[in-house]
Amino acid sequence: MTASDSVPGPGGAAVGRRIGIGLMYGLWKPRVLGAWRVPVGGPVILAVNHSHNVDGPMIIGTSPRPVHFLVKKEAFIGPMDPFLRGIGQLKVDRTIADRTAVTNALGLLARGGVLGIFPEGTRGEGDFASLRSGLAYFAVRSGAPVVPVAVLGSTDRRSRLIAGVPPLRSRIDVVYGESFEAGDSAGKRTRTALDAATVRIQQRLTGHLADARRLTGH
């Protein structure tokens, strides 16, 4: 592991949070519900649905604590590379079992940080219909509680100036759910245990998303 790939400190993510607050509240109208459900201290994983290109920055700007997201390596290009590293984001190669990213994420949680994950792996319908196993692995391995987060904005693609981006100054609801433990009481880390944890996680995330949609009218 090189110095540039080491676990980021909390300072950069705090700067990223301030930038996110300015940009997200300046360009859109976020309405944040349930932020008090995010534990005030200790490790936590934010599991976020992913249907807009601004979902990550929106969480960075609305979370009550600084967040470090696992970000695809393709985003670390040109000036974005030092910027993303500077605000504490973690690079991950989605085409391989990226051991450096895994080590950094677990190190972040061991230090009591907040890890943001899109468990669907990529932007899509944002309905948690298909989850990758990474979230279950991090939750079971670290023991960190998972907080489901629903980001809900306009679904009218005709009103978007840029594909994948909600209309400027439109309302975006960010709904934080109740935290939960993904692992079982036995603390097993076998493949069977991880598969079972993935099922439990998907049930909790889809349930929260349905509740968030009823609450917000999206």
Quick summary:
With 218 residues, the protein is an alpha/beta fold.
Provide an overview of this structure.
With 218 residues, the chain is an alpha/beta fold. The protein has a single domain (3-216), classed as 3-Layer(aba) Sandwich (Glycerol-3-phosphate (1)-acyltransferase). It contains six helices and seven strands. Helix 3 (80-86) links the parallel strand 3 (68-72) and strand 4. The radius of gyration is 16 Å and the shape is globular. The mean pLDDT is 87.
Descriptive tags:
218 residues, alpha/beta, globular, 6 helices
Layout of helices and strands, plus pairs?
Elements: H1 10-27, E1 29-33, E2 44-48, H2 55-62, E3 68-72, H3 80-86, E4 90-92, H4 99-110, E5 114-117, H5 134-142, E6 146-152, E7 171-176, H6 191-216
Parallel strand pairs: 1-7, 2-5, 2-6, 3-4, 3-5
Antiparallel strand pairs: 6-7
Helix pairs in contact: 1-2, 5-6
Largest sheet, strands/sense/barrel:
7 strands, mixed
Fourth CATH level, the homologous superfamily: Glycerol-3-phosphate (1)-acyltransferase
Query: Structurally, how many domains make up the residues?
Result: 1
Radius of gyration: 16 Å
